[in-house]
């Protein structure tokens, strides 16, 4: 069977997903929606598909599924519209920056019975998948401690920071999801510390650039997350999991697997320095997983609930910083 | 501009190249030729192209270039036919197992002025390209010594061994090409030692499975190549280059960039174990380079001459083993 | 000049320090004190020194300095006695498990003007010293974040756990000292989470086996410490420091610097698995630093104050766990 | 039991061995012989031993064993004298640069029944020992191929080169010994290529600075050795062994086990850059092995025969270069 797709939004990530749909067996890209004519045209030409408006796509009987790559503040509305229109929906995280808005949206999805996948691309990175598969195969026994190091090469533009919901909702949220996935148990309490160390202007905008978080589950498993908005050596993305029978870790990915040896020592190239380059395979795998789920009538591997719970951890972290105490997730979720 | 392609042969490598053509901007796959109907059909369906006979392709005015993926003993004839037909030609190495046949074929190519690229996929591996780029950028100064380690996970079928021309013409030939590429100077003398260590049957078939070769250029630069038909730990592909200002090396590629730590020590996954998996990016880059050369009317980066000279080094190595002495390449090339 | 030493206590660590004194130019081992006659005799024979009682050593005019390797609960008393006796003193951490007792003891030391070094062996590990030297040389600019991973191969005997003061005072205390040393700024707040994951009996004894701690300085620098009493893969000791210009890290030390490659992948030997083996060089360097300080009449590199402050961080961590909140170090130090 | 030693020669290596004797249980340093009074005095003071002449030591009844650290051209004579005097003898390689002189000397040793150990320090390096132990434990099955990379940071003084016997007798000789040790079978044929690449003056002195060698045993096992007198990145000492069940390798040793990550990539410190620093543990282990053999009345682990055979491989390599052919070791040994 072949699922027919529309991509909403032809920005950077929309283009990536359009290519992923085109190159996946069992999927066909039928249309793209994009207000900027040139961007729309570029995708339509490259992948040989129609240009349609969002309204037209909603009404199209030759479209089974949509991939939402529009600005964050449109996500929840579009999810509701397309859920009601009976389309399967893939949406890049987050559903919304407001927990109550996310909840309302997921209620609509629930009522319509629509298929919704919220994209957490890192779960589809081949190295991280290999770590998870080894955990699931019992390689390290029972999981006890998770360590996630996640640092961006540099901060986003100030303008973006003001709209992003802050470092916990924008950046740490990926690590919250990874922690939940790797811990194999829901988080009960959150402790966080936050500083402004790389740029005082970030503090003036009400955000932080350097944070550490400790997550604790009911049975006492713990995860630590360390984030910085600046790492001069590149996009640092590592995970490490300790179990009673051993430990697993995934290392960083360098530009090339080579080494130079000279008077100053031994040097390997910098890291892949941009999230779309670093996670190229992850983005492709993510869309392939969505296509596979839709074609099989199965539940996608990452859900709206995953989006909601990661956001709740971000809220708890913010509260922990504000009140200098451990915050129970139940306080947030009510 | 768009170059229109036909792929001759729809076996393993033909499929890889068909996909590469399809996914490269500036190229279009028009036809495939393949005697086995099912294989032809599979490619035609997957990449939406015609099925034509080789004769038809030769006569097709809507085809500018061919990619020859047929059995080795047809390469030279096909190169000559398509050179005369005015098509650009990509041919997987080798042109032929006989040096004189290669020479005759290249003469025809020369007379017709046809564009010919002989595929040495390893030159297009991203890691090896990064090493070469660093050499060309002067990072290690003048090249002095090259070390190439190249081991197959296991020997090919006996049947293939009898047709392959032997380990030097079939396996070491890739390393001879790498050595020429990295030394930056033509090889003058060849010394080789050969043994049968992994399977006596290989010896009974007149071949070797374990060889070491020393190459020497006129100025005294040297390369060593170490080959085995068996490496229990996988497809071992490493290069190392010493210059007066430093050394460069490319390491092996593992299945995943992860590590397990347990009672027995620290373990990384096995190597990518199959040449088509290990060199996926190399095959795609190789075809992209051919397409770029054809579109630009430029000389492709690997030539028929490269195929000839690598084969001459294989002949010299065989003679060195037979006569237990250093053999000058000039003795082979005449 | 030569400083004349006595070693108090001929247990494991006493023997290590006796050997260090003997093999260091500028130092001479004059006597050992040890209640177990056989142990005393062994050291006296091996290093050609006298056996004397502690009282005799206190009264000996041919002894300039003592190295205290007796049980923890004797440390503070012995420090006071030998400070009053005018000897230079090296004492293994901790001075005492009680903050007020430590304070009282340091007061005595201060009054007498005695030279006191409290041993934090890890500061003298060659790899950690290399990291610190690179920080001090400005290699990574301003320090922002420190990550310390410290896991023991297995828990100590239950009996020891009851006397140890708990994981924060016994194990994390080393990491607290490392964090202070690497942060380059005093810690202001402590957040800690603690679990019992490896053995419920440890919980019954009132201790934890798995803890994570976040430390924060006044300027916002942060350190995270992750500890476990069990790591099936060995004695895990790593540090990592992020600065505005780069990051530095020290990796684990394996039994040998070799690799096995086989069907199951690539394996390196386990870690040096015992603190005295892992930190052999550190123990020797530590005593050499003390000898150098005494001979030069200089202040030793680690002080009683360092011992006090590390203990205060342990107290703060305990309070943080008990009260589920961030604890200011000022609350502890008063 | 305690063996009483004299060290002949108080140069660099004599001092190292004097310290090794002093710090090894079961051994006592009684005397040093050294024509330079200051050097003799320094050792006598540091290790509390007598200064005696070689004649006196030969006649001393309180000396059981000698360690010969005098210039190479005195080795054979001293071995003969002390063999006749009934002392156990440790001599740094080589016994002599002339094969016939070595043979004559070993004949004398044989007649006297003296215990002789010829030092090949690398066999006592902890990492190389771990590789050998794993081979002997059957970890990689049957040995097939050995790869030895051995590069000096820089060439020795011209003056030394003229006296050294050339690169094969002075430098490669260590690798010849390692190859014999790791192959587990005697070498039958030698092929070598030699160039002058780092300094033309070395060629004018009749020597080479860049060589590659292939060794082949009767059963077809092979070893390759790659040497250079210059490696800008330091003292490069690696081994790698392929067997039918896997491969083992020992990596280089860096100044510290740390890493810097910055804009230019990831950097580890240079290699330990001087043979006495790189092989500190090896030198100590070597002397300990000699002492253990003498105390046990056992045959030392490296013999005069080992010295002879390594030298024969050097001769064969020289002949191979001169005649551009594979040379059988039997041609050399007669």
UniProtKB/TrEMBL annotation, chains A, B, C, D:
Residues 128-248 form the GFO/IDH/MocA-like oxidoreductase domain. Residues 4-120 form the Gfo/Idh/MocA-like oxidoreductase N-terminal domain. The keyword Glycoprotein does not apply. Keywords: Oxidoreductase. Its EC number is 1.1.1.18. Coiled coil: none annotated. GO terms for molecular function: inositol 2-dehydrogenase (NAD+) activity. InterPro entries: Gfo/Idh/MocA-like_OxRdtase_N (IPR000683), GFO_IDH_MocA-like_dom (IPR055170), Myo_inos_IolG (IPR030827), NAD(P)-bd_dom_sf (IPR036291). PANTHER family: BINDING ROSSMANN FOLD OXIDOREDUCTASE, PUTATIVE (AFU_ORTHOLOGUE AFUA_2G10240)-RELATED (PTHR42840:SF3), NAD(P)-BINDING ROSSMANN-FOLD SUPERFAMILY PROTEIN-RELATED (PTHR42840). Belongs to the Gfo/Idh/MocA family. This is Inositol 2-dehydrogenase. It comes from Albidovulum litorale. The gene is iolG.
